[in-house]
Write a structure and sequence with these properties.
This protein has eleven helices and five strands; from the N terminus they run H-H-E-E-H-E-H-H-E-E-H-H-H-H-H-H. A hairpin with an 8-residue loop joins strand 1 and strand 2. Helix 3 packs across helix 7 and helix 4 packs across helix 5. The radius of gyration is 23 Å and the shape is globular. By secondary structure, it is of the alpha/beta class. The termini are far apart. It has a five-stranded mixed beta sheet with strand order 3-2-1-4-5. The protein has two domains: 153 residues, 2-Layer Sandwich (Nucleotidyltransferase, domain 5); 52 residues, no CATH class.
Length: 258
C-alpha cells in the first residue's frame, strides 16, 4: 500500500506564530481570581502578599518588584497580568491598588548589581526587598513561579500574575513604577526610544545599540548589549578608568596617589 506522505510544518510566515504570541494567548485564557489567596486564608494565613517583578528581559535599567497585600473586604475590579493590560488600564488600576490594599511596597535592583549577580538573582533580591519593605509583615507569599528568602509560607504559581489577583496587583504597580523610571531617562538618551520601548529589544533600540553602543544604564551582561560594537564616549571613559585601576603599579613616586 502506498504510504501517506507525512504532513510537513507550514513554512508560510502568515501561519507561523511566535512563542510570545502563543504565551499571550494562553495567559488570556487563564482566569485571575482569589483562589490561591482563599486557600492560604483557609490554612490560617491572615496577611497574604502577592509578589512579582517586571523588567527581567529589558536591556536597560533596573529590575523592579512589588509586593501587595490585598484587602479581603475590598474588591478591585479588572486585576490581571500587567502584560494583558494597556498603559491606560494599568495607570488607572495602580492608584486603586495603592489606596485600597492593606499594604504595598516596591523595590528596585540597579544595573550594576544585575551585571554582577545576573538577572535571576537580581530579580529574587528585588522581590525579597519588596516583601521586606511591607509595613505589615505577611504570613504567606504568593509568588510568580519562584521561592524567595523570606521566613513565611510560600506558594510559587506558574503564570501566577495571570491566576492570582494579589500577584496581578503586584505586577501592575511594579510595571507602572518601572515604566516611569525608564521613561524619565528618555530625554537623556533620546536616540534609544526608551519612552516607547521601556528598554526592551525593539528593532530601533537594537539598531541604536549597534550604531552608538550602550549607555551606562544598559545591562552589559546581556548579549545584545555587550556585543554592540561602538561604546559611547562616557562608557569608554569608564572602561579606560577601570583598566588603569587594574594596571600593575609602577615604582615612580610621581605615579602614587595621595
Amino acid at each position: 500500500m502506498p504510504r501517506t506522505p507525512a504532513k510537513s510544518k507550514s513554512t508560510d510566515p502568515a501561519k507561523q506564530v511566535s512563542k510570545a504570541t502563543l504565551k499571550l494567548r494562553l495567559l488570556k485564557r487563564l482566569k485571575c481570581t482569589l483562589k490561591y489567596e482563599k486557600l492560604a486564608w483557609l490554612a490560617g494565613a491572615k496577611l497574604v502578599a502577592g509578589i512579582d517583578e517586571v523588567g527581567r528581559g529589558s536591556l536597560f535599567g533596573p529590575v523592579v518588584a512589588a509586593a501587595v497585600i490585598l484587602d479581603p473586604a475590598y474588591r478591585i475590579r479588572g486585576l490581571r497580568d500587567s502584560k494583558l493590560l494597556d498603559r491606560e488600564q494599568r495607570e488607572k488600576l495602580a492608584p486603586k491598588i495603592r489606596e485600597h490594599s492593606l499594604a504595598w511596597a516596591i523595590a528596585a535592583v540597579e544595573v550594576t548589581t544585575i551585571d554582577q549577580i545576573n538577572i535571576y538573582w537580581a530579580s529574587k533580591r528585588a522581590m525579597e526587598d519588596a516583601a521586606g519593605k511591607l509595613t505589615l509583615r505577611p504570613d504567606h507569599l504568593l509568588i510568580d513561579a519562584m521561592r524567595i528568602n523570606f521566613d513565611c509560607g510560600q506558594t510559587p504559581i506558574i503564570h501566577g500574575d495571570a491566576l492570582s489577583a494579589s500577584i496581578a496587583a503586584a505586577s501592575i504597580i511594579a510595571k507602572v513604577e518601572r515604566d516611569a523610571m525608564v521613561s524619565a531617562w528618555d530625554p537623556v538618551y533620546p536616540e534609544y526610544g526608551l519612552a516607547s520601548n521601556k528598554g526592551y529589544s525593539t528593532p530601533k533600540h537594537l539598531k541604536m545599540l549597534r550604531e552608538k553602543g550602550p549607555t551606562p544604564l544598559h545591562r552589559l551582561s546581556f548579549a545584545p548589549v555587550w556585543t554592540s560594537s561602538a561604546p559611547q564616549e562616557v562608557l569608554k571613559f569608564m572602561l579606560e578608568e577601570k583598566a588603569e585601576e587594574s594596571a600593575p603599579p609602577t615604582t615612580s613616586p610621581a605615579d602614587t596617589s595621595s
